[in-house]
Predict the 3D structure of the following.
Amino acid sequence: MVRLHQGENSRDIALSTEEYQRILMLAPAHLQRIMTCAYEAGMRSREITELTWDKVDMKAGVMRLGTVDTKTKHKRIIPISPTLRTVLTEIRASQRQGKVAPISGHVFTWKGKAFSRQGCKRSWKTACTKAELAGLHFHDIRHTFVTRKVREGWDYKRIMAITGHKTFSVFQRYNNPSEDDIKEVVLGIPPKKYTG
């Protein structure tokens, strides 16, 4: 028996604020909404494109994903940020004004139908090409969410509860500090620490 070398299959890409904003500006409206959900909530593309209104509790300010909604088959509660709330409110209003309401109850739609993951990938690739940013995957926004929240000083247990990562080793692959982040450890002001 020969043990084969396992190649590195994890990505270590987190978008800078400028890169994210550049793609967002050049993306069509339906992709902007999906990007905002990924950036603000750290959700996977399938979780976003298959999200239905019955999972969105605007009053409580959370999205409640069931075991069938997540890759890990574990329930998850995802907080709705003020930015995401604005987007969800706009979507809800536009769907109610439309001549044909989506029968499926999907949040993210295009021409009255649920927006597919393939459609998301195509739109993402086109927006990245327009932004002259090659080699990026939509999933990199999830890496960006984790990196941002660690940078802000939030403890990893709470971030993992939002993203659904079950092990610290997998979670760590999503935390991609920049060179400036590393330099701040020695030269900068410590981040605010959130405990509890």
